[in-house]
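Long-time lurker, finally posting.

We've been working with MarR family transcriptional regulator (Glycomyces terrestris) and I want a structural starting point before designing mutants. I don't trust myself to interpret raw outputs, so I'm hoping someone here can both generate the structure tokens and explain anything notable. Sequence follows.
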Amino acid sequence: MALTVFKLNGQFLDVADALATPAGLTAAHWQVLGAVLETPLPVAGIAREMGITRQSVQRIADLLAANGMVEYRPNPAHRRAKLVAPTRQGLDAVRRIDPAHAAFADRLCEVLGDDRAAEALAVLRELSSALAAIEEEG
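Top reply, 14 upvotes:
Generated this for you. Predicted structure of MarR family transcriptional regulator:
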């Protein structure tokens, strides 16, 4: 399972890079921006949500901030852990990705079939929950 998931992750990262590049982003940039589209989050919250290290999120958030894609805002819950929020420029970049992303998702569902795609998503979510439960035990 792990080897297949590693391969799948690489395949999705390749697709994400191809979709994000025309908007001036990388897959990692898009991932971090995507985590804060609905609600600004601290770096640690983004890392938890995305399942990546806090250090890598910090590095990417700093790059995005330097490029005007996100901004750091005060966090009422924690004085030192600023919130990462998308700027208008960051939102516009993600919106430029949306049509190609939707077309790719439609094509993937066409190849798999809508029912199989829904099953695959359900199994992946179940696998993620199982891994989280095992991690909490030990």
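Before you design anything, note these points.
The chain has six helices and three strands.
Strands lie at 41-42, 70-73, 83-86.
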